[in-house]
Amino acid sequence: MVETIAWRDSKVVMIDQRLLPHEQRYVVCEDYQQVADCIRKMVIRGAPAIGVAAAMGVALGMLRAAKDEDLDAQLEQICQTLASTRPTAVNLFWALDRMRRRYHQVRHLPLEQVRQALIEEAERIRLEDIEINRAIGRHGAPLIPDGKAVLTHCNAGALATAGYGTALGVIRAAWEAGKRIHVYADETRPFLQGARLTAWELLQDGIPTTVITDNMAGYFLRSGRIGCVIVGADRIAANGDVANKIGTYTLAVLARAHNVPFYVAAPISTLDLNISCGDEIPIEHRPPEEVTHICGHKITPDGVGVENPAFDVTPHEYVTAIITEKGVAWPPYEASLRALADSTP
Ligand code: MRU
Questions:
Q1: pTM over 0.85
Q2: Please, are residues 154 and 232 in contact by the beta-carbon 8 Å criterion?
Q3: Which among 150, 200, 212, 272 is least buried, having the fewest CB atoms inside 10 angstroms?
């Protein structure tokens, strides 16, 4: 399995996801500003992976922090820089809060021990994420029909996490359990996470995969070949509304129209139970060049208007179930999500 991100020799190393699948190049970050830049520019992307990167960014920042300056203030500066990179995936803010909490537990210790504690916490977040994804896979695999195709959007795989993946983790677990699966991967314009990343990951595992353009989803859902749709999430509100990659909402409506189950797979750290519904989720708008250009080639005329919202919100009524590491939440989500969040695994 590809290594998305690692702490190595007091540096943060991550595979450059902008270059995949044709080039496997690693970026080495020597300071937290570089980590922030990598998150902003999508060298690393996917909600849980962004969380791990932010945690490692904090550890890196504190490793380079000036000994004789206010450490609390430096920690806050580092966290604020990392928090300003991408607004939608709540895992980023969850990871920063966890690193802040750890810092406040150990801040009275000698600086070297504080630094070590933060490095260990970031590594714990990374390792836990892989275990969480395997648990999501175990809970979700029984929902995947045997002998039918599965449609997914964007990349909610090993590359979007510390490893194994959420939505692709469920697909992997079903495949490992012997289910006959064929994956349809939406290409996912404009950043092409499906065509480039999901297709690459699944081919490496030998899972049969077909890439389709996003506007083909209705055709294939109508064909009767697709047994379920499964996607990841960037933030889930208390009522079960799901923010995920732009185009997810369209898929959910299409799935409902064709009576196909629509599943969301996400860790508990993607739940934002402080917000009641999806209207409160901040939606990132990315640079217009992602729409006007494909792989460096301009495709639109000069002067045309462009919009590039990176995420949309799928209302909870279109979501059949939400698969987490603690079990599967079914509607009504207010009760089931809170019960799962409060339960011990
Ligand atoms: O813009 P991205 O590539 O970071 O968006 C990623 C997604 O929307 C994923 O589906 C989501 O983060 C879940 S990843 C396990």
A1: yes
A2: yes
A3: 212
